[in-house]
What does this fold into?
Amino acid sequence: MSILSDPSEKFIIRLKTYVHSLRKKFISRFSSDPLLKGILILGSGTAISQILGIILVPIITRIYPPDIYGTLAVFSSLISILLVVSTLKYELTIPIAEKGDDAEYLVFLSFLILSILTVILFVILVLWGDYLASMLHFEFLAPYYWLFCIGFYGASAYQILTFWALRSKLYVQITRTKISQSISGSVSKIILGILSFGSLGLIVGDIIGRWVGIGTLGKKIIPKMVRSIHDIDIQKLRSLASAYRKFPLYSLPSAFINVIALQVPILFLSDIYGFETVGLYSLSVTITLLPVSFISGSISQAYTAECSELFRQKSAELLPLYLTTTKKLFKYGAPIILAGAVISPLLFPVIFGSAWKDAGIFVLPLSIFVIAQFVVSSTDRLDMYGYNHWALIWNIFRTLLVLGGFYLALVYTLPPIVTILIFSLIMTVMYLICYILNIEAIKRCIGK
It folds into this structure.
């Protein structure tokens, strides 16, 4: 037995070493372009995590029917809304702080705010959990409302530490955590589904995926924060909170309105058409975003790292970086998204099961909006440029238009496919306006 296993183990070790060597050589060729290098490192991890996730999705969709899958979509939608206010947007200040010591204080400030808001959320759910659940048709989660607090804290803590890692350009660590999150979340959902946990299994699996990676990203900064908690300079903490007050004043309401616009479809579709339609829509959005999400998140993170450095220097290279990046995103993203949209109605029943046939049809209207979101969202940094109020006004108008679109769907009892098309067109137009606003903001920054 040992004679057979020893050569196989040596082969696996050599294979891993060879692949790692090729990856390093490939990345080193692009060392002259920091943005591209960051994209490659982050993108490789994102691609692996997404591929692993999509391999397991057909198993999950055969365990959980669309209506059960829809409950996870509503839970994730509510967590996404709560996540916006979790640190009052002070996590955005971590990469752009001029001094390393200031960045560490901002990490501490973000965790302090998160802890306070988590306690407040818990109290609210204890007192009014049943009432809120009846409003959102979430009675099935009783008496497990505290799961919102766990999911909320884990997702936000990971977000804070990711911005810290981006400041330090710890791209490899971020990629590892993404892979771990994808595997642990999907496997947990499958195991709990086999054990007949139903909606609770999907939600717990989602929470497990959100928590994984916190230790990896925070293994240096978290112990340091714990050791120095008694030596924290409260006056400096207040000073930094005041210095970056534009973020809670403008970025927070802007981001909150932004996430409302993005999550409105889930909540409105749930109320108008039920959990089954929400489940179909959720899967269609996930798969539509999949081809571009291999690199979109990585581009956004790497762009943040490089853009913040150029912004601090007030470099004239900031505008060319923005224009070149958005051009490449459209050039490579649009064909992939459109091709996937055309074949989705045929592939969805085969891959995910006959119950998910309509989800493939939903992909067609969604593809228009996804192209615009992929190009603009990855590079939108109005808050970083100091034009937080522009982002706020833009988000207000977008949200009002989206709400207006769903109001029309409710009044005229439109079918789900038409409602989704209206939503997609509204979002596309607004992202084009956001693109123009970013160009103007960069020009003004350079001018200053």
About this structure: The first helix runs from residue 2 to 28. Confidence is low (pLDDT under 50) at residues 1-5. The chain has one domain: 34-447. Residues 34-447 form one domain.
